[in-house]
Every structure is written in structure tokens, then in C-alpha cells.
Automatic annotation (TrEMBL):
The keyword Ligase is annotated on this UniProt entry: yes
Reaction catalysed by this enzyme: tRNA(Pro) + L-proline + ATP = L-prolyl-tRNA(Pro) + AMP + diphosphate
Name this protein carries in UniProt: Proline--tRNA ligase
Function field: Catalyzes the attachment of proline to tRNA(Pro) in a two-step reaction: proline is first activated by ATP to form Pro-AMP and then transferred to the acceptor end of tRNA(Pro). As ProRS can inadvertently accommodate and process non-cognate amino acids such as alanine and cysteine, to avoid such errors it has two additional distinct editing activities against alanine. One activity is designated as 'pretransfer' editing and involves the tRNA(Pro)-independent hydrolysis of activated Ala-AMP.
Lineage, highest ranks first: Bacteria, Pseudomonadati, Pseudomonadota, Betaproteobacteria, Burkholderiales
GO cellular component: a single term: cytosol
Keyword Nucleus: no
Length: 570
């Protein structure tokens, strides 16, 4: 590519609304241009990177045996009504009408359509297992689209869906996807961690997120440095409990959400995950005395710790304080189904081994059937917790036999694998005939990767004061040739052209900057754009048969004989 024939347009300043570095740098580098909240054009530079990410994902999906197809962006509402998500999905689902007033959705994900395909295409156990995927535009009407491509409304996702005859085979499909994800994120050159996760609106049981580690990440991850254990702390849907001295249920509700009908609100929070087993609930205050904040930590699962949730109260109501161990025992201990015991960990108290449904009963004093969807997003409107506060609590006091020594990091969710079982196949009646000729529901899994989000995540992890430092695998160009005085020097022109031709023949993605710009301007532009390797060619070096090789991650350039340049680059 010749720079004069490409479209480059870098900016000195980032827009004021760009809060995080990837948004700032992608805008300044001319990679994205905004049209509305969360809706962007991928400019030519960004599209090159997007395609490279897509190709790596595609290669690894194909290698893992998944089959590519392309499902529609606009999907009929009927399928979403069949699955129940026409109602459940909430405001994130963009609903549209055609000229005949028929309802459609712009797809946020494709479980419904792919299950529709499966029920029509798959009849026999002989056709299984099968895994269909596509790389397609998604639309989610995010409440707060922000951070550029990190949380767009329109974005690009790879989503795959596996169909199996039984749970063991479905687990094998899940594991194959998990392994493919490890390969994908390794090839992309990202530092990441796979963590146990909640299943959100998709539902189901087993689930892992792939998180790119970055301080600006929206997710909090807890992990045990001594073991494989890692989990997402889900902030959004955490229920909140408070035990207070002799507090009647009414008072508890009042404290947890002042002025609101607590029963319904807590129930909405718990509804998300009523079936989960909670290993422990921890009540704790922040270390700041009288700060009036409360954390709830739930640890669930079959191993030591499986999932951790943290919720936060806006403030302690006047007259309330942290409950003591005895008070918690006294309050909850007499309740039927209470599994106790309470273990103190510093300022923290722990309720062991209970289900979320039990907990809901404790708080609401009602049967699960009575819980109503309150339509209140309590949790979501609260400020984010201070990581330092969490760290004090979670990492503190390793001497106890509480949740264990956990460390906290921030992460960006770039991939997610779910085990769905028959959640969709039951609803949409997608069955196959087993070896005995009996119909059985297909066992499903679904697997997403945020292709466009990966670009932003990579920048969060790889940048410096000058700009982006692309990992080679996803750089828009691998090499840029910067000739000095191209239009004045025959020698420079010849050498630049020769290097350019040879690199291209070798399959290297190279751009020759043949524009007539000052060296300083040219260098800082390419540093901002983040091309990993730069070759500078000037008359002065050429006299000695030397050009300059500069990696975006080295502090200084190196003088290299022209003849050696190619071997150095390869
Ligand atoms: P988040 O928790 O960030 O809202 P999610 O859990 O809703 O993401 P999934 O349904 O798991 O997302 O979708 C699969 C992948 O799609 C995510 O892991 C993420 O990388 C990507 N993704 C989801 N929402 C967005 C978005 N608004 N913009 C860009 N990428 C997204
Ligand atoms: Mg989401
Ligand atoms: Mg998520
Ligand atoms: Mg997810």
C-alpha cells in the first residue's frame, strides 16, 4: 500500500467524551468516526485490523471443527417470542416494525435463529455433533454506550452454537471452544485470563469469560494466585443483604433500598440466578469507618470458591451498623433452611452453603413464585466500588478458612463460552431422533467473541505516550517504510521502492509513506497509528549502505545494513 493512495487522517486532540485511552487513540489515529452514541464507521485502518482479528478467529474456529454460515441481522419477532426473550431481553433489544407492522428485532445474538435452523436441518443423531458460527453485526441498545468500540451499540461479534446428542458430548464441544479461545487470544498477543462467569440473559449453567487484563476494564476479576481459580465479580445483578440487630424483615428491606418496595427489588436481583448454589455470603463494611457502605460477597459452587458477587448499599441508614456474628446467627439462625454457620473474617461475616433462593426467602419472607419483576435497576445505578476497598477485604486476612487468598484485577470481557443444555431446544422444540429412534432435545452451547471490542482491548493493554503499539498479529500494517526526502533523492526513492517490493513479495503487510511530509510529522503519525516496525531510509545512511530499523516497542532505532534488513524483519 502507498500512503498517498490510502486514507489517513490523524488528529491532534481526542474528543472530550473519550474517557479511555483506546477511544482517544483510535479516534486520533483516524480509525473510527462516530455517527451516534455507540455507532461508528470503521475507517480503512480499523477495518484492516478488524479483518485480521476476524481471520485469526475464523482459522481457529475452523480448526476446532466449527462450520461458518451467515445468519440475518434482522430477525422475526416470532422466534424471540417462542424463546421468551421478546419480553425477557428488556430494553437492550432493538425492536423494529416493517411496512406491514410486523415485528422484528435487530439481533443482539443468534440463539433463536440458529435453533430454528437446527430444528429444521437436524433430524438424526448421525448429524451430530455440529457447531455453526458466523461473524456478524450485532445491535444492543446499551444503556450507556461509551468507550468507543469497547461498548458500542452496533458491533461485530463472532458467535458459535454447538449442537450435541447428550451432555457429555456437549461438554466436549464446550471444551473444544474453550481451547480454541485460548489459542485465539494467545495468537492475538493479548494478556488474558479465563474466569468463571455468570450466564446473564442467556441462562444455562457452565460459563467462562475470557478477560483481557487492563486497569480500565469494566469487570472485576478475583483469582487465587496459588490455584487455577478465577471468577468475575458481577457487579450488576448482585443482591444485597443486611442483618442488623433485631431488625424485622421490613426494616431490612428499608435499609437495603430506602423508600422502595424491597421485596420486589431484591427478588428481581435474585431472579437472575435463583437456582445457583451459594457457598457463602459475606457481610462486610468498607474499611472506612462510618463511610456507610456495605459489601456483599457471595461465593458459590462446588469447589472452594466458584463465583463471587459484590453488591453495595448506597449508605447505611442512620441508626444502622454492621451486624455482628452473633446477630447474624440470631437473625438467620432460627430460619428454616438456614445452613450456617457464620464465620468471622476480620470485619467480615460468612454464611455458608445456601442457595440464592433460600436467601431470597430470608430477605423477602415470601415464596419465589411471589417475586415480581419490579422493573427497577437497583445495582446498576450505584457507583462502582473502589478496587482498593475490595482488595482490603478480599485479600485481607489469609489466616482464616474463609474464601481463601484472592487477588483482584480489572478485565475487559472479550469472549464468553456458555453451556446452554436444552434451554433453547426445549422452548423451540428442536429435537433429533436418538439411536433408539426417540426424539430428544438437542444439547446446546454458545460461544461469543467481541471482534471489534478486541481492538479496543488490545490498545488498552498496548500503548504509550506516543500512541498505539499494535501486537503484530492485528496491526493494520506490519511495516511502514519512511523515506526521508523521497521527492528529492533518487537513491532514497530507489531503495524505498526496492524494499517495498521485496517485502510485499514476501507477504509482509507493508505501507510506503510516499507523501511529501516532514520526517517529524511522519514519524509521530505512524507512532500514533501504532505500526509495529518502521524502516527509515535517508541519503545520509544510504551512503554507508545503512537504513534504520525501529520497533514500536524499542526505545531506540537500530542501524542495519540494507542487505540484512529482510532477514531482520522476518
Ligand atoms: P458485557 O458484559 O460487556 O455487556 P455481555 O456479557 O453482554 O458483555 P455476551 O452476550 O457474552 O456479552 O457477548 C459476547 C461478546 O460480545 C462479549 O464477550 C464481548 O466481547 C462482546 N460484546 C458484548 N457487548 C458488546 C458491546 N456493547 N460492544 C462491543 N462488544 C460487545
Ligand atoms: Mg452486555
Ligand atoms: Mg458480561
Ligand atoms: Mg458475556
Amino acid at each position: 500500500m502507498l500512503a498517498s493512495k490510502f486514507h489517513l487522517n490523524t488528529l491532534k486532540e481526542a474528543p472530550a467524551e473519550a474517557e479511555i485511552i483506546s477511544h482517544q487513540l483510535m479516534t486520533r489515529a483516524g480509525m473510527i468516526r462516530k455517527h451516534a452514541g455507540g455507532i461508528y464507521t470503521y475507517m480503512p485502518l480499523a477495518l484492516k485490523t478488524l479483518r485480521k482479528v476476524e481471520n485469526i478467529v475464523r482459522e481457529e474456529m475452523n480448526r476446532a471443527g466449527a462450520i461458518e454460515l451467515l445468519m440475518p441481522v434482522v430477525q422475526p419477532a416470532e422466534l424471540w417470542m417462542e424463546s421468551g426473550r421478546w419480553v425477557q431481553y428488556g430494553a437492550e433489544l432493538l425492536r423494529i416494525k416493517d411496512r406491514h407492522q410486523r415485528d422484528f428485532v435487530l439481533q443482539p445474538t443468534s440463539e433463536e435463529v440458529v435453533t430454528d435452523i437446527a430444528r429444521n436441518e437436524i433430524h438424526s443423531w448421525r448429524q451430530l455433533p455440529v457447531n455453526f458460527y458466523h461473524i456478524q453485526t450485532k445491535f444492543r441498545d446499551e444503556r450507556r454506550p461509551r468507550f468507543g468500540l469497547m461498548r458500542g451499540r452496533e458491533f461485530t461479534m463472532k458467535d458459535a452454537y454447538s449442537f450435541d446428542r447428550d451432555e457429555a458430548s456437549a461438554q466436549a464441544s464446550y471444551d473444544a471452544m474453550y481451547d480454541a479461545y485460548v489459542k485465539i487470544f494467545s495468537r492475538l498477543g493479548l494478556t488474558f485470563r479465563a474466569v468463571a462467569a455468570d450466564t446473564g440473559s442467556i441462562g444455562g449453567d457452565r460459563s467462562h469469560e475470557f478477560q483481557v487484563i487492563a486497569d480500565t476494564g469494566e469487570d472485576l476479576i478475583v483469582y487465587n494466585p496459588d490455584s487455577q481459580y478465577a471468577a468475575n465479580i458481577e457487579l450488576a445483578d448482585a443482591p444485597c443483604l443486611l442483618a442488623s440487630r433485631a431488625a424485622p424483615t421490613e426494616a431490612l428491606r428499608e435499609v437495603a433500598t430506602p423508600g422502595a418496595s424491597k421485596c420486589e427489588i431484591v427478588a428481581e436481583q435474585l431472579n437472575v440466578s435463583l437456582e445457583k448454589t451459594v457457598k457463602a455470603v459475606v457481610f462486610m463494611t468498607t474499611p472506612k469507618e462510618g463511610a456507610g457502605q456495605l459489601w456483599l460477597l457471595m461465593v458459590r459452587g462446588d469447589h472452594e470458591v466458584n463465583e463471587v458477587k459484590i453488591g453495595k448499599l448506597p449508605a447505611f441508614k442512620e441508626g444502622y451498623r454492621m451486624a455482628t456474628e452473633e446477630e447474624i446467627m440470631e437473625y438467620f439462625g432460627s430460619k428454616p433452611g438456614f445452613l450456617g454457620p457464620v464465620k468471622p473474617i476480620g470485619q467480615v461475616h460468612l454464611l455458608a452453603d445456601r442457595t440464592v433462593a433460600n436467601m431470597a426467602d430470608f430477605i423477602c419472607g415470601a415464596n419465589r413464585e411471589d417475586y415480581h419483576y419490579a422493573g427497577v435497576n437497583w445495582g446498576r445505578d450505584l457507583p462502582e466500588p473502589e478496587v482498593a476497598d475490595l482488595r482490603n477485604v478480599v485479600e485481607g486476612d489469609p489466616a482464616t478458612d474463609g474464601p481463601g487468598r484472592l487477588a483482584i484485577q480489572r478485565g475487559i470481557e472479550v469472549g464468553h463460552v456458555f453451556f446452554l443444555g436444552d434451554k433453547y431446544s426445549e422452548k423451540l422444540k428442536a429435537t433429533f431422533l436418538n439411536e433408539q429412534g426417540k426424539p430428544e432435545p438437542l444439547q446446546m452451547g454458545c460461544y461469543g467473541i467481541g471482534i471489534s471490542r478486541i481492538m479496543a482491548a488490545a490498545i488498552e493493554q498496548n500503548h504509550d505516550a506516543k500512541g498505539i503499539i499494535w501486537p503484530l498479529a492485528m496491526a493494520p500494517f506490519e511495516v511502514v517504510i519512511c523515506p526521508i526526502g523521497l521527492h528529492k533523492s533518487e537513491a532514497v526513492q530507489q531503495q524505498a521502492q526496492q524494499l517495498y517490493d521485496t517485502l510485499r513479495q514476501d507477504g509482509i503487510d507493508v505501507i510506503l509513506d510516499d507523501r511529501d511530509v516532514r520526517p517529524g510529522v511522519m514519524f509521530s503519525e505512524w507512532e500514533l497509528i501504532g505500526v509495529p516496525i518502521r524502516i527509515t531510509i535517508g541519503d545520509r545512511g544510504l551512503k554507508d549502505g545503512i537504513v534504520e530499523l525501529q520497533s514500536r516497542s524499542w526505545p531506540e532505532g537500530q542501524k542495519v545494513p540494507v542487505a540484512e534488513m529482510l532477514t531482520r524483519i522476518k
